[in-house]
């Protein structure tokens, strides 16, 4: 029986990422069952979770539950991780009467807009928007429904008490992606970066981000960073993270300013390449499991293509562009290793990493629209969670039964051809 090192990367996609809620819950519960049994075949350790936007929220909930915490003895357990995932989507859902009404009205307006009905626009931080949020709050909308900071504080109430010393020994990482608007940097907020700053983890200490990888910054993990990953510029003002160092046009020189962040959809969706920057082969994951929210393929019927359908497809393609580029790089390295081995640099520090995809059924993926990514109806979220649970149960059973023969990327990003 082998125990694989697994990294899970959670794609963003608004409330469609409630599917990820079910996926991660089933993975965690299955790990608990398999570890307790100890005789049924291969199993796995989760060594990293990454995510973008709503996928970042799922990754953070999972990591926070699994991370040791001096203020909460229940943290550091699979049960706590599942409980935090449940809490995330329960709190995020529209539940009070004004939230339910707001969710329905917003959904109707988005559907009309997707069909080309013009609506006046306004800045996310305009007086009109501020008054609208204040009115919703006065009518009974919860802070966790209206803003990410309150949601994240509820999700991770003892974030300041994470036991970083024990976390370093636990070998568990979280990475969330965002775009820094002014520089255009692809940025990640990374728990390993926090460990490095505390002198507890050397993995990324040699990464020269101000010169060699200057368009890909690594920052310490923070709740502000997770909020940044989900900051859609059409809805929310840029998330500000104070006093950050940025490279300049002078080699080796940096400047300090506040960072302004938008949704990670504009950078990495989700971060994958950063999961491979461990210095030794043994520390790298054996497999990366991608929870794909945006379908790679589109229904092959173009007879009735309206503006709303075009926008749906644009949204899918934007969500998959960076992901496929990062995954194709991994498959290229795998091919080189198969052809040339790993006896000599630069392949001597590399190893074959299998990439596998967990995705919705074809019927679900092709039936939803990008407008429903804003739907916070509890029934909508629960249906996606249940599908994630069911799909992942069968997926894990096949992963264990088929071993190396189990289908992998790029083939598993597709749906089987129909007659």
The rounded distance between the terminal residues' Cα atoms is 39 Å
Please mark out the parts with pLDDT under 50 across 5 or more consecutive residues, or reply none.
none
Strand content: 15-25%
Net shape: globular
Per DSSP, the total helix count is: 13
| Rg (C-alpha, Å) | 21 Å
User: How would you characterize the largest beta sheet?
Assistant: 9 strands, mixed
Q: Fraction of residues in helices?
A: 40-55%
Order of helices and strands: EHEHHHHHHHEEHEHEEEHEHH
Counted beta strands: 9
Secondary-structure-derived class: alpha/beta
On the 0 to 100 scale, the average pLDDT is: 90
What's a quick, concise take on this entry?
Helix content is 42%, strand content 16%.
Structural description of this entry:
- This protein is of the alpha/beta class.
- The chain has 13 helices and 9 strands.
- It has helices spanning 18-37, 54-66, 78-92, 97-114, 127-138, 143-146, 148-155, 164-170, 191-197, 223-229, 307-340, 362-367, 378-402, and strands at 3-10, 43-52, 173-180, 186-190, 216-220, 239-247, 254-262, 287-292, 354-359.
- Strands 1, 2, 3, 4, 5, 6, 7, 8 and 9 form a 9-stranded mixed sheet that branches.
């Amino acid at each position: 029986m082998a125990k694989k090192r697994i990294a899970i990367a959670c794609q963003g996609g608004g409330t469609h990422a409630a599917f990820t809620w079910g996926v991660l819950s089933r993975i965690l519960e299955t790990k608990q069952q398999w570890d307790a049994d100890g005789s049924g075949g291969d199993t796995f350790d989760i060594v990293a979770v990454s995510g973008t936007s709503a996928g970042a929220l799922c990754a953070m909930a999972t990591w926070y539950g699994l991370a040791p915490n001096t203020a909460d003895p229940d943290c550091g357990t699979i049960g706590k991780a599942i409980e935090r995932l449940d809490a995330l989507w329960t709190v995020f859902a529209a539940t009070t009467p004004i939230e339910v009404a707001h969710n329905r009205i917003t959904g109707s307006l988005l559907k009309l807009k997707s069909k080309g009905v013009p609506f006046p626009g306004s800045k996310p931080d305009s007086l009109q928007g501020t008054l609208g949020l204040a009115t919703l709050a006065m009518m009974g909308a919860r802070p966790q429904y209206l803003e990410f900071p309150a949601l994240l504080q509820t999700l991770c109430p003892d974030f300041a008490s994470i036991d970083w010393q024990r976390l370093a020994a636990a070998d568990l990482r979280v990475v969330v992606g965002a775009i820094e608007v002014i520089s255009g940097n692809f940025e990640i907020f990374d728990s390993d970066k926090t460990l490095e700053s505390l002198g507890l983890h050397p993995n990324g200490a040699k990464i020269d981000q101000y010169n060699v990888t200057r368009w890909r910054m690594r920052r310490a993990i923070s709740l502000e960073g997770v909020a940044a990953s989900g900051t859609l510029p059409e809805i929310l003002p840029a998330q500000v993270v104070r006093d950050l160092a940025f490279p300049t046009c002078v080699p080796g020189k940096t400047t300090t300013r506040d960072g302004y962040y938008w949704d990670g959809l504009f950078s990495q969706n989700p971060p994958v390449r950063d999961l491979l920057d461990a210095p030794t082969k043994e520390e790298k994951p054996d497999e990366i499991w991608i929870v794909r929210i945006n379908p790679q393929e589109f229904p092959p019927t173009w007879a009735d293509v309206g503006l709303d359908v075009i926008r749906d497809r644009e949204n899918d393609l934007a969500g998959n562009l960076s992901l496929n580029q990062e995954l194709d790089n991994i498959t290229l390295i795998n091919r080189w290793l198969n052809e040339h081995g790993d006896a000599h640099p630069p392949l001597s520090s590399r190893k074959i990493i299998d990439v596998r995809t967990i995705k919705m059924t074809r019927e679900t993926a092709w039936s939803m629209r990008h407008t429903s990514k804003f739907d916070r109806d509890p029934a909508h979220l629960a249906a996606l969670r249940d599908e994630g649970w069911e799909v992942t149960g069968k997926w894990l059973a096949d992963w264990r039964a088929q071993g190396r023969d189990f289908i992998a990327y790029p083939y598993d990003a597709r749906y089987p051809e129909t007659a």
